[in-house]
From TrEMBL:
<feature type="transmembrane region" description="Helical">
    <location>
        <begin position="436"/>
        <end position="454"/>
    </location>
</feature>
<keyword id="KW-0175">Coiled coil</keyword>
<protein>
    <recommendedName>
        <fullName>YhaN AAA domain-containing protein</fullName>
    </recommendedName>
</protein>
<feature type="transmembrane region" description="Helical">
    <location>
        <begin position="460"/>
        <end position="478"/>
    </location>
</feature>
<feature type="coiled-coil region">
    <location>
        <begin position="715"/>
        <end position="742"/>
    </location>
</feature>
<feature type="coiled-coil region">
    <location>
        <begin position="324"/>
        <end position="351"/>
    </location>
</feature>
<dbReference type="InterPro" id="IPR027417">
    <property type="entry name" value="P-loop_NTPase"/>
</dbReference>
<keyword id="KW-1133">Transmembrane helix</keyword>
<feature type="coiled-coil region">
    <location>
        <begin position="503"/>
        <end position="579"/>
    </location>
</feature>
<feature type="coiled-coil region">
    <location>
        <begin position="183"/>
        <end position="227"/>
    </location>
</feature>
<keyword id="KW-0812">Transmembrane</keyword>
<keyword id="KW-0472">Membrane</keyword>
<feature type="domain" description="YhaN AAA">
    <location>
        <begin position="1"/>
        <end position="202"/>
    </location>
</feature>
<dbReference type="Pfam" id="PF13514">
    <property type="entry name" value="AAA_27"/>
</dbReference>
<dbReference type="InterPro" id="IPR038734">
    <property type="entry name" value="YhaN_AAA"/>
</dbReference>
Length: 917
């Protein structure tokens, strides 16, 4: 990129100014405050955008209200002539780009053209500022070497500053042996806090044990609750089984009836029905023929005469026989079921000691919901009352012991003489005289005892004993009158004060417990009023808890259901008996010929069938024996042949080994009809029963009731366990709350968590800085390995030119930067003069630009970058820049007359700006 023209419409002090840059090596000359830096900022702004508010850059808004912005025209190797226009008030400060081929774009196109050149690269690589040279003198050897290498490798000191900033920020947070860094301070604070926590926990050794037990109780309660919920769901299923058991009995009965029976097709049933109708017709015809013949045979037997008179009635009754047998079996099942219901009811009455008048309780949903809520409240209040009462008993015992200890301490203090009272002087010998007298008496006694032994006189022992007693009395009296030591008195008073403090604390706790118990009693009294209303309304006992009431309500409901089912079974039995009685009454006309006394309806119909079979056999036998007419025999033979053929047809259609007679065929047809109805009913029942019964198993109502009782017992056991666990939990919770009442442990734990959180956050910051620092070092090392050889070769060439051969080599040894002069002496960087340092810095900057010309193609802008150069060094620099500009455009901003003279002498481009512009 080569700058060609600057058109400034309004920027700082410039308005409607045009600057043409015609030379590869261009000087923009002006006195101080002429606007050289303004031109640099104008180029920077048009290429990279207006500065943001947070950037600390001088405001270049036009002072006379002109349009803020302008144009920069430059030549690009790929796109040719490029015009960039940017105004603050237009298009939100976005650039307008026009290419030589007519293409128009915005900031995106401009970034693509300038890439990889950015605003930061432009500022730190392609611009030379006086401030950068001034900073070189403020660096030590290590930082100076690092800066030079960084500048040479990256074109700026950015990596160095970043690395230094990361190190500073990291050391602000933590140093291994530091005291001021924040993490060090907080670690010391945490250590002190841990010691304090350890001390408090050692004083409360049981705290952790109780806390662990509370966690165990919480887990146990959760497990038992889970088991209780399972039993509760199982109870629902069993109650549904009880409710639907009549349906199950019906299903089982129908299943047994249809078991082993194959359902025939509709066509087959119609064919059998048609054949049976034909058979009935032939029988009627045979019957008519026999009756006619019997009339001719003379007087018949009375039984047969009775049968003939009522034959049509008997035929109708025979068709009802199958219905009677089915109803009889149904009645037997109902009786068995009613018996099971009664046994279940008696079992429940006996188990829960109930009577029939106490189970007729009907709670509305609102009342039951309110009762559940108050039951929980009552249970909680009773539990708290028990816990507080136990604690009160413990504190009363402790207060009694403390009162005894205080009384003892007070008695001990009362014998100590007051500090203000003068001791009363007793008459008699002082303690020292008493001691001397006592010792002398014992000594004399010993001498006299020796004399008694020598003289062998027993009476001498009497004065010996008297003297010894006097001596001992003296010593005892001296010890008894000895004053109490001040230290002992002080210790007793201190213990007494501690005991008083502890006693006051116990009294305070007792007062609080009394207040809590009073409050609980008040709540219980209020609750008892509502409880009494329910007890009067529903017949509950006030001696029982509402939880017990609620636990028994399902039993009441179960008993009510059983009673309802019992009533329903009785009604079903009554209906069955009524139907069977009506069937029996139909045979009352035949009691003269059929025995119906003391027999069931089923047995009566069996007797009727037997009677009919006998009369039909009698008719056939008589007809065969008395008929001699050939015509009658022929007709009878023909009819019976047709009957036989019809029977064979029916049996062949049915094709069953169990159906061998025409009567069995009729029954088979009736069963087929019933079977279809039964199968439909079975399907309906299976839909209702499938969710509650395993239809592959057999159930009995008694077993279901026993199972329900077992589940209820397990629920009660679970409830008792939960109550026990909760009581223990509440006791532990209260004890822990008393231990934590002063808030010390809780506050210390919370404080520790807060400190750990802060330390973790600070540690994360420290690690971030550490990683960033290492990453910067790695980047720098990578760049060094890749670019250092070529860089040092180019730097050596430029530095040799700038120093006119005084220094002819720049190299790195053991990570340190050195230069070698023409006398083969090696110099570290720190020992170079200020001007030589500036020359070396300039060599590094120009070397980087030279190595990356093809990548960036950006002009080099130097703003008085020869601050410490004498005239000779300046001349050398200008010569180097003249040659350097053959590849890269160089724009110098200066107020130095020597620079202007050089550019004029060598016929280089000069743009002059001044205060009158």
């Amino acid at each position: 990129m080569k700058l060609l023209q600057l058109k400034i419409d309004g920027f700082g002090k410039f308005n409607n100014q045009v600057f043409n840059i015609e030379s590869q090596n261009q000087l923009i000359f002006g006195e101080n405050e002429a606007g050289k830096s303004t031109i640099y900022q104008f180029i920077r702004t048009i290429l990279f955008g207006f500065p943001k508010k947070r950037e600390m850059i001088r405001d270049f808004t036009p002072v006379n209200g002109a349009v803020y912005g302008g144009k920069v025209i430059f030549e690009d190797s790929l796109h040719g002539k490029v015009t960039v226009e940017r105004y603050k008030e237009r298009n939100k400060g976005q650039a307008s780009v026009l290419l030589e081929n007519g293409q128009i774009g915005n900031d995106l196109l401009l970034e693509k053209i300038l890439s990889p050149l950015t605003k930061e690269t432009f500022d730190q690589i392609f611009s030379f500022q006086q401030e950068q040279l001034t900073e070189l003198n403020q660096l030590n050897e290590v930082k100076l070497q690092h800066l030079l290498l960084t500048v040479g490798l990256t074109g700026s000191e950015r990596l160095t500053k970043m690395n230094d900033n990361f190190l500073k920020e990291r050391q602000k947070l933590f140093k291994p042996s530091g005291r001021i860094p924040e993490i060090n301070q907080r670690l010391r604070q945490l250590k002190k806090l841990e010691q304090q926590i350890e001390l408090v926990e050692s004083q409360e050794a049981t705290y952790q044990v109780k806390q662990k037990r509370m966690l165990e109780l919480t887990e146990s309660i959760a497990e038992v609750e889970k088991e209780k919920n399972y039993q509760f769901e199982l109870e629902k299923t069993i109650l549904e089984q009880q409710k639907r058991f009549p349906m199950y009995v019906e299903w089982e009965s129908l299943t047994k009836e249809t078991k082993g029976e194959s359902e025939a097709s509709t066509q087959k049933i119609e064919a059998v029905q048609k054949a049976l109708n034909n058979h009935r017709f032939l029988l009627d015809k045979e019957k008519e023929l026999l009756e006619n013949q019997s009339g001719q045979l003379g007087v018949e037997s009375p039984a047969y005469q009775f049968y003939l008179e009522n034959q049509s009635i008997f035929d109708d009754l025979l068709e009802d026989q199958l219905a009677v047998e089915s109803m009889t079996e149904r009645r037997q099942l109902l009786e068995e079921q009613l018996k099971e219901y009664r046994q279940s009811k008696e079992t429940l009455y006996k188990k829960y000691r109930l009577s029939e008048d106490k189970i007729n309780i009907e709670l509305t949903p609102d009342v039951e919901e309110e009762m559940v809520s108050l039951a929980k409240e009552e249970e909680e209040l009773v539990r708290e009352k028990v816990v507080l009462s136990n604690e009160k008993s413990r504190l009363l015992i402790r207060r009694k012991d403390m009162d005894t200890a205080l009384t003892t301490a007070e008695n001990q203090l009362m014998v100590v003489p007051s500090d203000e009272a003068e001791p009363v002087k007793k008459k008699g010998l002082d303690p020292l005289s008493k001691k001397l007298f006592s010792g002398l008496s014992i000594a004399v006694a010993l001498l006299i005892s020796s004399l008694a032994i020598v003289l062998d006189q027993t009476w001498i022992y009497v004065p010996v004993i008297i003297l010894i007693l006097l001596g001992l009395y003296g010593f005892v009296s001296v010890k008894k009158n000895q004053p109490v030591k001040e230290e002992e008195v002080a210790v007793s008073k201190e213990d007494y004060l501690l005991q008083l403090t502890a006693s006051d604390e116990v009294e305070h706790l007792l007062h609080e417990l009394e207040a809590q118990l009073t409050e609980i009693e008040s709540k219980l009294e209020t609750l008892q009023i509502r409880k009494q209303e329910w007890a009067d309304q529903y017949g509950f006992s006030m001696k029982e808890t509402m939880t017990l009431w609620l636990s028994r309500i399902p039993i009441y409901t179960q008993l009510q259901d059983i009673q309802e089912k019992e009533v329903e079974m009785k009604q079903n039995l009554a209906e069955a008996d009524k139907v069977l009685t009506s069937y029996a009454e139909l045979l009352a006309f035949s009691k003269q010929w059929i025995s119906i006394e003391n027999k069931s309806t089923k047995e009566i119909y069996q007797e009727m069938k037997k009677f009919v079979d006998e009369q039909q056999k009698y008719l056939k036998d008589k007809a065969l024996s008395s008929s001699n007419e050939q015509n009658f025999q022929g007709q009878l033979h023909s009819i019976r042949k047709q009957v036989t053929k019809c029977v064979e047809e029916v049996l062949s259609l049915i094709d069953s080994a169990t159906v061998t007679t025409i009567e069995e065929a009729a029954i088979w047809l009736k069963k087929q009809d019933l079977s279809k109805q039964s199968q439909n009913r079975i399907d309906e029942l299976e839909l209702s029963l499938g969710d509650y019964f395993d239809l592959t198993k057999h159930y009995k109502l008694v077993e279901i009731n026993h199972h329900l009782i077992s589940v209820k017992n397990k629920e009660d056991e679970c409830t008792e366990k939960i109550n026990g666990y909760q009581n223990e939990f509440q006791e532990l919770k209260y004890e822990l709350s008393q231990m934590e009442k002063n808030g010390s442990l809780d506050m210390l734990y919370q404080e520790r968590e807060n400190k750990l959180t802060i330390i973790k956050e600070l540690s994360d910051q420290w690690i971030s800085y550490k990683v960033a620092e290492e990453l910067t070092q790695d980047v720098f090392q990578y760049l060094s390995d890749q670019q250092l050889p070529a860089l040092l070769a180019t730097v050596t060439t430029y530095f040799k030119i700038l120093t006119e051969g005084n220094y002819f080599k720049v190299f790195v040894k053991n990570g340190q930067l050195f230069v070698r002069d023409k006398e083969q002496k090696v110099w570290p960087i720190i020992q170079l003069s200020t001007g030589a340092k500036d020359q070396l810095y300039t060599a590094f900057r120009l070397a980087f630009v030279h190595l990356h010309t093809e990548d960036y193609e950006a002009p080099v802008i130097i703003d008085d970058g020869w601050l410490h150069f004498d005239a000779k060094r300046k001349l050398t620099l200008f010569k180097l820049l003249d040659g350097f500009s053959q590849q890269t455009q160089v724009i110098c901003l200066s107020s130095d007359q020597a620079v202007r003279s050089y550019f004029e002498t060598h016929d280089l481009g000069i743009v002059t700006i001044g205060r009158d512009v």
